């Protein structure tokens, strides 16, 4: 299980990461682009993965990682069930999400 405190500490440890509200969620950004959100009500994260990483994480455990069920999911946005994910796996996914957004070309 990953708590919001652990999530926040890890997300804010990345260079130039910021935290801002995003509707009813908390978002974590790099270069004004969201790489992760936290939905406290449902204890879920949403991460921006590339297509390959999304397929790998989703295949590893469909009950922990799954595509956002709309066009955003097809763009790599992936839901993570924080009550079920192992901290090491979440950390790996969050790092990949940060790197995906931080290195994306304009």
Written description of the protein model:
The protein is α+β, with helices and mostly antiparallel strands. The protein has a six-stranded antiparallel sheet with strand order 1-2-3-4-6-5. It contains four helices and six strands; from the N terminus they run H-E-E-E-E-H-E-H-E-H. This is MmcQ/YjbR family DNA-binding protein. GO terms for molecular function: DNA binding. Pfam families: YjbR. It comes from Flavobacterium potami.
Alpha-beta classification? alpha+beta
| N-to-C order of helices and strands | HEEEEHEHEH
Rg over C-alpha atoms, rounded to the nearest angstrom: 12 Å
Q: What portion of the residues fall into strands of 2 or more residues?
A: 25-35%
User: How much helix is in the residues?
Assistant: 25-40%
Q: Given the C-alpha coordinates, what overall shape results?
A: globular
Organism: Flavobacterium potami
Pfam family, one: YjbR
InterPro entries: YjbR-like_sf, YjbR/MT2646/Rv2570-like
Protein name: MmcQ/YjbR family DNA-binding protein
């Amino acid at each position: 299980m990953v708590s919001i405190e652990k999530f926040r500490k890890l997300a804010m440890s990345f260079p130039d990461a910021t935290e801002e509200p995003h509707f009813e969620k908390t978002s974590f950004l790099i270069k004004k682009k969201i790489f992760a959100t936290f939905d406290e009500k449902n204890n879920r994260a949403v991460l921006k993965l590339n297509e390959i990483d999304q397929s790998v994480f989703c295949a590893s455990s469909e009950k922990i990682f799954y595509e956002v069920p709309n066009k955003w999911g097809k763009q790599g946005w992936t839901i993570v069930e924080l009550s079920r994910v192992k901290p090491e796996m979440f950390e790996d996914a969050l790092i990949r999400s940060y790197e995906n957004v931080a290195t994306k070309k304009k």
